[in-house]
Structure formats: structure tokens, C-alpha cells
Amino acid sequence: MDVRRTSLHAHAATVNRGGRSILRGASIELDPGEVVGGGGPIGAGKSTLIDVLSAGTAPDTGRVELDGRSLATYPDLERAQRIAVLPQTSSLAFPMQVLDVVLLGRLARSRGPVRDHDRVIAARSMDALDVLHLEARTYPTLSGGEKQRVQIARIMTQLGEDVSGCFVLFDEPIAGLDVAQQFRCLEVARALAEQGASVLVSLHDLNLAMVYTDRAILMNRGHIVADGSPGSALAPNNIETVFEVRAYRAELSPGVFHLVLQHSTLDDSEENSLSQEGRHD
To answer: Strand 8-17 to strand 61-66: parallel, antiparallel, or no bridges (unpaired)?
Structure first.
């Protein structure tokens, strides 16, 4: 596959629910080899955008194309071989073993009996997410963070060994994870991009988006209001407008910045103190 020509593209996609638009004319193109971070307040439309890009929801107006062809025309199996999605929540009440949950990802590749090759891919995926030691546990007995990492391993197993030209859509994948596991998850996202996949990851931690993404989008009230490098899309003025907070960019070391966010009701003395520490726009 020539990954240079592959893309997943939403064109002016709008989704209406309950008499209001929850996604408004959103246009975005995902290309191979990049991690795109999606930020914005709760209810900004991030999950809906991911749902539209994965064909979970058809836009009321606009369209979504995979390699220049309408996404809706792809058979389910073919689409699952190209696009893998991690929703915000993954409910599974059956007492399945963790290994079997991860192996569900292989249904996109093979509908026959589980092969040794499938088990090897599943084991590698679990090892990457530090859940290999949990393979014999039953899924409902896991903690929330462990379940999340198992689901990410399932996504990796779905994609298989060659992820070039594939699209990975993560909706808040680090929710419920401790700091070390958040880093591990985002390093997996980076590794997938380096292998030729395109990764869209919804994040609430804007500083992690600054570190781990190649590109960022900022959403508000169903609109994509900024799309560019993390430094430009997540500029303090954009963050202040979207989140209604005070935003400052502190330089920790040459070329390394950290976003400092403060409640918008800071008094003048507090603002002056922060400004003296250095505000970098």
C-alpha cells in the first residue's frame, strides 16, 4: 500500500441531535505518520467527530472519505481493517479472560479459529501495554485503568503487524490511567504513527498534547476552531477563548514550554505575579 496517498477526510461534517448541532461543519484530514491531538471542553464535539470518522455516525450534512472514496461505501470488514476505534467507555460484563478480549481484535482479520499467529500478535500488544501478566484474569475483575489498557491492546491486535495506511482513533485513552501508564499509552500512539499509521487522540491534558502530538486541533461548541502545530493551535489566546481560563506558556528550558492554566477570576495581584514569571505568547 502506498501510504503517501492514503487519507481519512471529513468534509464540512455536521451532526444534529435533539434540535441542535453537536458537530458543525467540521473539516479535518488525517494523514499517515502523524499523531493529532484533539482538545476542547466537555461537549465540544470531540467524541462526535471520532464517531463520524469511524462511520459510527453518519453526518447529516457533509461527507467522510477514506482514500477519496465515501467511507459509507466500505464493507464493515474492510473498514475494520483500516480504522480502529477506542471509545470513551467499553462495556463488557461477560467473564471473558483478558487474552480472549484482546483476541477479539483479530475478528477484523480472520473469522476462523484462533491461530498461533493471532496469539503472538495479541501477546505483543499486551506486552506493549503492560497487561500481559493479566492474560488469564477475567475482564470484569480488572480495575478501570487495567480495562482501558486491555482495550488499547485489543485495538493494536486488530491492526496487526502492518499498520501503514491504518487510522487509529482514541477517545480519551488515558482517562483513569496513572501518570506512568499515560506516558506508556501515548508512546504507543507515537510508535503507531512512526510505523505509518495516522493517530487521532482526544486529550484533556493539554501539556501532554504539546509533548506527544505532531499536530493539534481545538474544538468548541461543535466547531474546529484551531488546527495546526501544537504550539499554534494550543496557543494561550486560543485556550483562553475556548476554556474561559487564564493561560500562560512558561519556558522550562530552551524550547521546552509548559502551559499554566488559572481560573479566570484571578485578581490583578495574582495575574501580575504570574506575568513576572514570564508569559510567552
So the answer is: antiparallel
3-class DSSP state of 264: coil
CA-to-CA distance for 30 and 83, rounded, in angstroms? Answer: 12
Residues 6 or more apart whose CB falls under 8 angstroms from that of 103 comprise: 114, 118, 119, 122, 157
* 3-state secondary structure at position 217: strand
Between CA 243 and CA 239 the distance in angstroms is 6
Question: How do the pLDDT tens digits run along the chain, 281 residues long?
Answer: 344 468 999 999 999 999 999 999 999 999 999 999 999 999 999 999 999 999 999 999 999 999 999 999 999 999 999 999 999 887 787 899 999 999 999 999 877 788 999 999 999 999 999 999 999 999 999 999 999 999 999 999 999 999 999 999 999 999 989 999 999 999 999 999 999 999 999 999 999 999 999 999 999 999 999 999 999 999 999 999 999 999 999 988 887 889 999 987 545 555 555 444 444 44
* pTM of structure: 0.89
265 Cβ contact partners less than 8 Å away, ≥ 6 residues apart: none
CA angle 79, 80, 82 (to 5 degrees): 70
Determine the Cα angle at 31 with ends 30 and 32, to 5°.
Answer: 130
Residue 74's DSSP bridge partners are none
Q: Which of 78, 81, 76, 50 is nearest to 64 (CA)?
A: 50
